[in-house]
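A.,

Following up on our hallway conversation. Structure tokens first:
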């Protein structure tokens, strides 16, 4: 019934808000912790989808509140909000900053969500244009984007891509032969996405919080809270162009695998500064300028929406949380990346309802429960982190219930810590892992159609090679364009002096 959807949307909103308030937890951690609830929604997977998207939307907004009030990002995607948001809070303008965050997040979240989900059923026409060569080219371009656009070290990026592809190849090949299992029967079914996400992103972030001994107390509120909120709303109304610009940048960067998130927020912040260069400012940027805050705040919410598009259309996650949504949807039996799914109006309606409900719901809760949010932030970080870590361990034991789940989680967590320490791209590993099997399938499928007389997962004699048919690939311009873009991205990353985007 409809009230079940409303109830679970409310539960998802409250839970996402709670996790979002916790420093450095983030939406990926929030989704990992609820994975064990997947069996509850098997009777009605759309109900679970509403629950998930409400968590994503509310957590995306609540992450910003932590960044503004404590100076500790709720997630890496909201780090840009700290630059001007936290100085405003320290000056006693916390209510004004919260008003900006609530207004900006709600506006960009609702607008871009409505636009995306309204058009999503029509995107199925795009997939019709994609055959095996097109999918192969698109996935190659995804690897190039995630590996080289936002990376500062080409060699480490290549290593991350190779490692991710190797992880994705574990299990069975396209003809069901075991590979890279090292004689371990547990690995014949492959490495689960949940345990990979937990190891690469969930556990390392929590351990980093323990190491830094985070204290999340917010500065005291000065002045009238409602007056401050109203002032923040007026700031957004006067500078609506900056708000729309930031959301648009977040939306576009969210479409690129591994390039959204923090990069999108900082690009939006940089664009806002550039647009106001030479103009008189209330206060300088970086010292509590409200324009700087509203310029980047909405980018996070818009990015969360657009990250859904490549995940749904092609099965390629543009962000870690999107990979988690994919994993849970596939657990529900939904065929991610297929035209039939896009024609399922119940699917798109569930996505839209959950996200918009979560966006609006967390805004209303934030306005009403502001004083309680401050109380929550006074709770020591280790209490939150210990509980979340325990839930993550429990969620990862749902595969077999044996010691193998914990052993693999420990190994991948160690890998995640090493990657975080030495700035090795974890999104590159994740995206490579997700597309590995599909690249394998589409590569041999393309050779079957355009290169070899007989399809087989391995090279045959050169006499079997059909050179003329290979050149018929020109009939697939999408493939050619994707390959050209991939090469251009790689060459640019090698020759440019300022490699990558230093958003730290």
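Then the amino acids I'd put at each of the 504 positions:
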């Amino acid at each position: 019934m409809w009230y079940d959807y409303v109830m679970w949307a409310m539960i998802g909103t409250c839970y996402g808000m709670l996790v979002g308030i916790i420093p450095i937890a983030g939406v990926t951690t929030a989704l990992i912790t609820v994975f064990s609830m997947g069996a509850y929604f098997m009777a009605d997977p759309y109900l679970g989808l509403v629950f998930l998207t409400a968590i994503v939307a509310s957590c995306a907004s609540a992450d910003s509140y932590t960044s503004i009030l404590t100076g500790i990002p709720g997630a890496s995607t909201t780090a840009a909000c700290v630059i001007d948001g936290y100085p405003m809070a320290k000056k006693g303008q916390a209510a004004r900053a919260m008003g900006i965050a609530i207004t900006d997040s709600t506006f960009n979240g609702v607008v871009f969500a409505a636009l995306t989900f309204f058009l999503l059923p029509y995107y199925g026409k795009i997939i019709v244009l994609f055959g095996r060569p097109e999918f192969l080219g698109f996935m190659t371009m995804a690897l190039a984007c995630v590996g080289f656009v936002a990376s500062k070290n080409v060699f480490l990026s290549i290593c991350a891509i190779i490692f991710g592809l190797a992880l994705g190849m574990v299990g069975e090949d396209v003809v069901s032969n075991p590979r890279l299992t090292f004689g371990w029967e547990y690995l014949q079914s492959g490495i689960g996405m949940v345990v990979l996400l937990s190891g690469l992103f969930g556990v390392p972030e929590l351990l980093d919080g323990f190491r830094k001994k985070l204290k999340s107390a917010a500065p005291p509120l000065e002045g009238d809270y409602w007056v401050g909120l109203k002032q923040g709303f007026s700031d957004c109304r006067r500078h609506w162009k900056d708000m729309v610009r930031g959301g648009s940048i977040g939306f576009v960067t969210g479409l690129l695998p591994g390039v959204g998130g923090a990069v999108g927020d900082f690009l939006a912040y940089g664009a806002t500064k550039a647009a106001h260069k030479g103009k008189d400012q209330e206060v300088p940027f970086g010292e509590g300028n409200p324009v700087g805050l509203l310029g980047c705040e909405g980018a996070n919410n818009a990015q969360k929406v657009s990250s859904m598009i490549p995940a749904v259309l092609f099965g390629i996650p543009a962000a870690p949380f999107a990979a988690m949504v994919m994993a849970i949807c596939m657990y529900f039996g939904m065929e991610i990346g297929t035209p039939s799914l896009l024609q399922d109006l119940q699917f798109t309606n569930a996505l839209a309802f959950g996200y918009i409900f979560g966006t609006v719901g967390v805004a209303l809760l934030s306005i009403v429960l502001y004083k309680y949010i401050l109380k929550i932030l006074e709770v020591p970080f280790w209490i939150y982190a210990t509980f979340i870590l325990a839930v993550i361990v429990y969620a990862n034991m749902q595969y077999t219930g044996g010691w193998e789940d914990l052993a693999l989680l420990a190994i991948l967590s160690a890998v995640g810590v090493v990657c975080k320490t030495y700035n090795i791209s974890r999104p590159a590993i994740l995206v490579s892992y997700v597309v590995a099997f599909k690249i394998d399938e589409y590569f041999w499928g393309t050779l079957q159609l355009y290169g070899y007389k007989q399809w087989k997962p391995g090279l045959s004699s050169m006499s079997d090679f059909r050179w003329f048919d290979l050149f018929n690939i020109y009939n697939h311009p999408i493939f050619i364009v994707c390959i050209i873009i991939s090469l251009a991205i790689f060459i640019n990353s090698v020759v440019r002096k300022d490699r990558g985007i230093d958003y730290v």
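Confidence is low (pLDDT under 50) at residues 452-468, 499-504. Curious whether your intuition agrees with the design.

B.
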